[in-house]
Amino acid sequence: MEFGYIFAGFVVGWLVGLTGVGGGSLMTPILMMLFSIKPAVAVGTDLLYASVTKTAGIFAHGKLGNIDWKIVTRLGIGSVPASIATILLLKNIDIDSTSAISTIKYWLGIALIVTSIAVILRNKLTQWLAGASLVPEKYVDIATVLLGIVLGVLVTMTSVGAGALGVTALIALYPNKKITTIVGSDIAHAVPLTLVAGLGHATLGTINYELLGILLIGSIPGIYIGSHMSSKVSEHWIRLALAAILIYVGIKLVLH
Hints:
By secondary structure, the protein is mostly helical. It has one domain (about 1-255). The protein is built from ten helices and no strands. It has helices at about 1-20, 25-35, 40-65, 70-90, 100-130, 140-160, 165-175, 180-205, 210-230, 235-255. Helix 3 (about 40-65) packs across helix 6 (about 140-160), helix 4 (about 70-90) crosses helix 6 (about 140-160) and helix 5 runs antiparallel to helix 10 (about 235-255). The longest helix has about 30 residues, at about 100-130.
């Protein structure tokens, strides 16, 4: 079983390195569906897993000047309080109850379906917008804070959304920013968000630390190899395959 966890960590890490997508979108459903981990524990463990793996991304993108700290700050102003509020809400319910498990699965499924659409449309969105933001320029700052609130709730509930959804929404708000800056800023924001949400889950007792360590053994080399393969492999087809998997798993969770 330990080898299975290491392999799962490696595959997810490889996909994250290759496409920038796949962390929470794949790890949480894999833990739930293949390894029968309780939904709340899968979400909590994956959040800390994401914060550790994406910390390396901050250093890499920071060195290259790919982080817009104003965007990161605006997102954080919305997401961190929203994450804390969501944890306080989860503290007041029995997260092992049938209704709580059902709710987590449902929203995880919805998040995966929306994420799959975001994965497919990301490149097209840039062409459609042609340099014009989806919202008037004077409202971009407040729209970014509101996006942070949505991501804070969604990520804390399901561990999904910080990657593909965040990047796609930021492209819509900041179409004139380079895609490397959007991705770098999204990763920089994901680290404190997943850390706060993960520590919040730690207070709920929904983190398996042994499992976390085993997953990281696989994911760290996976991310390294995926990152170095990204320039040699057709990302388009991998994105489509990834989107198809996310839609399938999402629908299965929604209709469970």
